[in-house]
Amino acid sequence: MAERLATDFAFSHSSAALLHGCWTWRLGPAVHVTQSGVPKAGRRADPLLRRHCSALPPDSRTTVAGLPVTSLERTVVDSACELDEEQAIVIADSALRLGADPDLIVSMTDARAGYRGIRRARRVLALADGDSESPGETLTRCTVVQAGLPTPRVQIDIHTGRGTLWVDLGWDDIKVGIEFDGVGKYGADGRDARADILAEKKRDGVLDGLGWTIVHVVWADLADRDALVARVRGAIGLGTRRTLLTQGSVPARWLPGASRVA
After folding, report:
1. Half-sphere exposure of 19 (CA within 13 A, CB side)
2. Is 181 helix (H, G, I), strand (E, B) or coil?
3. Organism's domain of life (predicted)?
4. What distances in angstroms separate CA 190 from CA 145, 179, 194, 201, one per listed residue?
5. Are residues 155 and 122 in the same domain?
6. Is residue 250 a contact partner of residue 212, using CB atoms and an 8 Å limit?
7. Which one of 66, 82, 130, 194 has the fewest beta carbons within 10 angstroms of its own beta carbon?
8. How crowded is residue 16: how many other Cβ atoms within 10 Å of its Cβ?
9. Is 123 in the same domain as 148?
10. What are the tens digits of pLDDT across the range 62-116?
11. Cα(189)–Cα(198) distance, rounded to whole angstroms?
12. The domain containing residue 24 runs over which residues?
């Protein structure tokens, strides 16, 4: 593909994300390139090549495996403007984990004020979190936020008498957590899958003893988002009741009719 492009270019958008090693979610087959000049006329269109015409300043480009690629930060902004929100947030979370500069991402986004897709990009960047540890966690977080629930905190540390336990995401003010159990969690690295399952049950027991309600999510749950949200809402209901019983009140954001953007 690269040798067929005569005008100065860099692989961009989802193609750049793949080259950088970012997580991706349900991408199409098209290869995206950004060219700093207008492509020469007369070339036959390639249905699998998406050309974008835009300036490529030095802070927007790099090389990966010898190929010209947009920088991590530029890749996040391009993807956030072009892709659907879930696809873009998956890329943004992983780019931040890989070391993308959040301040540079913000400045690049601000420079596009008024451009197509910029509102979606701002929503994506407001939700992006480099502490997410898998695309499944990211998509689960997107699901609960899209359902109108408060944005969950990522990687919650819970101190116990036996050390610190970590929960993928949740709301510590009502002690509700969500664990995304991805493929390979049980029996990975040669471990006994049964031992992993028993360890998880023991861990859940410790958390339950501390008043936590844990929702376990697997990839198949993302195929039925309504059912997943219903399970999470059920856990939130239990968590708020537990909090009310133990503390005599619940945080205002969990009261009926409260704004749940925080």
Report:
1. 24
2. coil
3. Bacteria
4. 36, 22, 12, 20
5. no
6. no
7. 66
8. 30
9. no
10. 999 999 999 999 999 999 999 999 999 999 999 999 999 999 999 999 999 999 9
11. 17
12. 2-130
